[in-house]
Amino acid sequence: MKSRPEICKNLAAQFYHQVQKKQAEITPKKISEYQIIELEENVCNLKKVEADWIL
Questions:
Q1: Mean pLDDT of all residues in the chain?
Q2: Over the stretch 16-42, which tens digit does the pLDDT of each residue have?
């Protein structure tokens, strides 16, 4: 089992990666606050693609 700091570090790294990926997909390259909130809500939702990193 991973420690809390390690889990938090992995979560932050995954969230950062997903924000960078989303920026690469959109034009202009500025991601909106709504898009960041959406990613944040989905990053730990096992029913969403953004949470695949957990599995």
A1: 86
A2: 999 998 889 888 878 889 988 998 888
Do residues 22 and 5 touch, judged by C-beta distance below 8 A?
A: no
Instruction: Provide the token pair at 40.
Output: 């944040």
Provide the residue type at 28 as one letter.
P
Fill in the amino acid letter for 46: L
Q: What is the 3-state secondary structure (H, E, C) of the chain?
A: CCCHHHHHHHHHHHHHHHHHHHHHHCCCCCCCHHHHHHHHHHCCCCCCHHHCCCC
Give CA 54 to chain center in angstroms: 11
Q: How far apart are CA 1 and CA 45, in angstroms?
A: 20
